[in-house]
Amino acid sequence: MPAPFIDVLQGQGISAPFPIQAATLPDTLGGRDVLARGKTGSGKTLAFSIPVVARIASGNRAPGKPRALVLAPTRELATQISAVIEPLATACRLKVTTIFGGVSQHRQVQALSAGVDIVVACPGRLEDLLKQRHLTLDAVQICVLDEADHMADLGFLPVVTRLLAATPSSGQRLLFSATLDNDVDKLVKRFLHNPAEHSVDSVDSPVAAMTHHVFTVSGPDAKRDLVNTLASGTGRRILFMRTKHQAKRLAQQLNQSGIPSVDLHGNLSQGARDRNLAAFSNGEARVLVATDVAARGVHVDDVTLVVHVDPPAEHKAYLHRSGRTARAGGAGDVVTVVLPEQRRDVTQLLRKAAITATPQQVTAHSDEVKTLVGEIAPYVKPAPAQKVTGSPAANNQRGQRQQRHRGGAEGRPARAPRRSGNGQRSTRRAGSASPK
Fewer beta carbons within 10 Å, N or C terminal of the chain? Predict the structure, then answer.
């Protein structure tokens, strides 16, 4: 371990490695390719951040020629990876920049032109900038692919394959993924050379401190009251919904009930997403209401409770959502709220996820619920709604101009022009649905 890193980690209160760090660091610092599998919240970001910085600690910086590359599936995850790498990089006088879509590329291009050592990027925007020749990847000495299975779920593997192919085959490559399905194994076979394999998934894993609960309710009204009670505690909690509209509406309802809440979903601008995440991280909001688009990207410490207000469609989404609690050695609870007509589907979901939890019929006033919620936080008077200035037409035109200026959402395939039935030009994202 480089000496400057020890000072940085001790300054953050980190004195001993988590299992995935202890398992992978000897190989990654030794220059080997590594394939690592571990549960969410196991400390993998730091596990690859240390070798990324160590590998390029010496050397010269050049415009548009990063020497280290980290690929991540979402804007939030890319931003939070950068936050972990930054202190280590600063100790070695290295520059880091983050690249993702949904915002103007101007500042990203400026940073690349000024010279950066480490790029943390989402695949779509990075490929756009590569095609525009704002950077090349032929100087990359170490490349990390984080949450490769989620890349596959989002349809990014073709883009990821092209990006990895643009890096030198002699470089070191680290791949972190919960599973090797959905063609992730093809990436491993093509781009990793004799990798050291590590799987950290034992009963001693930090995520073993996660406790699962299944609360069944009699109907929609009982569900609404239960969710309001679950959200009313003092600790941080994340509530997951199926759709953007439902997430926005629930956050509004909780705020009106005196529970400071923010929402996170695909309809928000990058600025709004950043503000809401910051409010949740700094304690201004105790509750984050999110859709699955945020399940992989939210890495906030001390989340004590995750609530599946709407059970997810498949078991991997359940595990990814649940992984927002019990992170980095902490403990946490996960609640799935189940309506009568959802019981069979949820039973199958939990079986596939290898989760054992006995369903409990509850109301908002049940002892099991009160024990889980703990101390009720004080009522917070909701802030008055902000008025929109200007005419609706002007505001709509302004929003359209801003959206065109920002470009498409992070990481999604580029917009392709097409003709509608009346001959007019229209655009849509090829091969992707609107994010929730």
Answer: N
CATH number attached to the domain at 206-373 = 3.40.50.300
Contact status, residue 161 vs residue 188, Cβ threshold 8 Å: no
Give the pLDDT of residue 40.
61
Q: pTM for this one?
A: 0.65
**260 pLDDT tier (thresholds 50, 70, 90):** very high
- How much is the average pLDDT of 189-200? 92
What average pLDDT is seen over the chain? 85
